Amino acid sequence: MPSFPTPTIVALHRSKSVPHHRLLPSPFLSLHHGSRRRRHTATDPSHVQTSFPWRTCDSPQRTTSPPSLRSPLAKYLFDPIKVEVTRFFAKTFIHQAYGEGYTENQFLAGATQALEAFCQACGRSSLQSLKGRHRRSPHHHEEEEDDPLSSLLSRPLYERLSTGIASHALDRNETVSLSLDSLHDARISNYSVLFGPRVGTAARPRLQAVVGRNRWYLLDAGSEYVMFRGSSVGTLCPREENASARSTYQLGTRAMDEGAVMSIDVTFDCEITYTVVRERSTDDEREATVTVDETTSSEPTTAGTLARKVSEELSTRSDGSRVVYTDTCRRDLVLVFEGKHATQEECREGAALGNNHWTIADVDSLMESDRYQVWVKDVKKRIKSTENAER
User: Fold this and answer.
1) Is 222 left (phi over 0), alpha (psi -120 to 50) or beta?
2) 122 φ, ψ (degrees, to nearest 5)
3) Which is more confidently placed, 276 or 313?
4) Is the pTM of this model over 0.70?
5) Residue 87 burial by CB count (10 A; 0-12/13-18/19+): exposed, middle or buried?
6) What is the maximum span of the chain, computed from C-alpha positions, in angstroms?
7) N or C: which end of the chain has fewer CB within 10 A?
8) 243-264 confidence digits (pLDDT tens)
């Protein structure tokens, strides 16, 4: 694998235009269009469900919204028109802020490097520091600078993934790793703009309502904020201001004056191997000794026991560690890149390029799916409470 710059996604910078066929690093560019899904799994039965939230070959698509109840006319005519109009607005706004040449060329080239850096960082994360932070508060940020993941991911996504890595380390003395085997294509699949004031990274959006593609969230960042997100455009404003606004237009105008946070979704057609490795420990040595003693004094080995032993021997590495789970799959992987908050002055004529540090805010809709699942549980609780009150 080729070496990449320090994983801070600094590759997304201003430079001369790059031809489209040179956007992808040549070691990853592949013209092979074979099976879209390929799987090889060697697993311990206890690892069918891993703690690290990664979508494998058998994983279903993550649910982020309830089934649509819209009429066919709205679903297939009006809604697609709204989506395209708002997406065009967001795309135009981002092109104005960063420049069309940068967004369509240099950004996409940097995104491919960011994907490789992300896969490498998952395997290089310091297990000892992750264990220490996992035993303390999840909001404890000491020693995070030593973790390569912290500079790549937004804080909510970093806490979500590092908790999964630490859970493997604490519960089973295991490490998780991602390997980018091949990259066939990369394309920008969506643009998003969220207008409003800067609230920092401490705020955690909590989903409050879902109507079609429209979502409303509540944020607590010192004071409460209401966040609205459509398909590509959203607004963020203080809760009191949202209640006193006379119209949606007035609310949107005020939010636009505060600046914006821009996001770009990139879809990668790639083949990635996800692996869980159990490090050898003194407990494993004792267990191996006991197994040998029992085998020598027991009845002849059955076919199932023999197959299990052969599988364990094949998955055991020279250093004594053992591969307990591996999954290789070619599929579409979606990363959401989020920029820093930019003022209105920084969103004109490419001025945002001076503040173009991007972080990965979501992977395969993981964060949005988590928020939706929490919202579903809250709705069920409210319905149950209402039913109990009526009895």
Assistant:
1) left
2) -60, -35
3) 276
4) yes
5) middle
6) 83
7) C
8) 777 677 788 888 999 999 999 9
